[in-house]
Specification:
- This is Sulfotransferase family protein.
- InterPro entries: P-loop_NTPase.
- It comes from Onishia taeanensis.
- 47% of the residues lie in helices and 10% in strands.
- The model has no long low-confidence stretch (mean pLDDT 91).
- It is globular, with a radius of gyration of 18 Å.
- The chain contains twelve helices and four strands; from the N terminus they run αβααβαβααααβαααα.
- The chain has a four-stranded parallel β-sheet with strand order 2-1-3-4, sandwiched between helices.
- It has one domain: 3-Layer(aba) Sandwich (Rossmann fold), CATH 3.40.50.
- The chain is an alpha/beta fold.
- The relative contact order is 0.17.
């Protein structure tokens, strides 16, 4: 029993996407801020060794580890692995949520602004989590069944995430309301599409973790900002809402 109570604490923010996880990452009190927010170890790669190495690297320089991976919310592998390592760490899983329709539309616009998709049907075919990740209750039920410490932060209406982190026992790195991730407005859709594909290759090769944040943010600013913000039409909105209500 004493061994269980002495387990290192690991906070895992599982999202889903477009629910404030970048702002949370910017607020977390890292002793050494990771070069990249997301490594996709347990979603796209299902690599438990890589995730354990990341956790232990943080614990070597600070008392608590913080993992922010919004793709984990809908990942069966992430759910399984985080359940399995709970005998090694005291794992706290945090699900952030906002209005499910607003989240879904924001997620669609994210992919559209990067030049990856042009219509709702094609977008959901390529990225089913656009709709699926807004089925909060379905995924929350699965998470609650396998992890002991499961928390929900509702960011609908612009919750103060500094306050929410404090309630979890985390002292944020700064106080007051912080808003990260400005709405993307690509200068050129072809360039945005190429940049998106290039970055995906970097992720697949695990080279994204060695790219300095300053360089990544500078390149992102040149490609994804400075043009007209991407909008969702009434027809696209209606189509997405229809899919949300009919797709299991």
């Amino acid at each position: 029993m004493n061994k269980k109570h002495s387990r290192p604490v690991v906070y895992v923010f599982i999202g889903p996407e477009k629910t404030g996880t970048t702002t949370i990452f910017d607020l977390l009190p890292f002793d050494q801020v990771p070069l990249q927010k997301e490594m996709f170890n347990l979603s796209r790669r299902c690599d438990s060794n890589a995730e354990l190495a990341r956790i232990d690297a943080q614990l070597s320089v600070q008392n608590v580890a913080y993992i922010v991976e919004p793709t984990y919310f809908v990942s069966d592998c992430a759910r399984q692995i985080l359940s399995e390592i709970s005998d090694r760490y005291e794992v706290h899983v945090i699900h952030t949520r906002r209005d499910p329709i607003d989240r879904m539309i924001s997620h669609y616009l994210h992919h559209k602004a990067k030049g990856r998709v042009s219509d709702p049907e094609g977008a959901v075919a390529s990225y089913p989590e656009i709709v699926g990740a807004s089925h909060y209750d379905e995924h929350t039920k699965l998470w609650r069944e396998v992890v002991e410490h499961f928390h929900v932060i509702d960011v609908t209406g612009g919750a103060d995430l500094s306050t929410e982190l404090t309630r979890l026992g985390i002292t944020p790195s700064s106080s007051g309301a912080v808003q990260s991730n400005l709405r993307m407005a690509p200068r050129n859709f072809k360039l945005a599409r190429l940049a998106s594909k290039f970055w995906q290759v970097m992720i697949d090769l695990r080279l994204n973790k060695i790219v300095p944040s300053r360089l990544k943010n500078s390149a992102k600013a040149r490609v994804y900002y400075g043009g007209q913000p991407v909008e969702v039409s009434d027809k696209e909105r209606e189509c997405l809402i229809r899919m949300l209500s009919t797709i299991d």
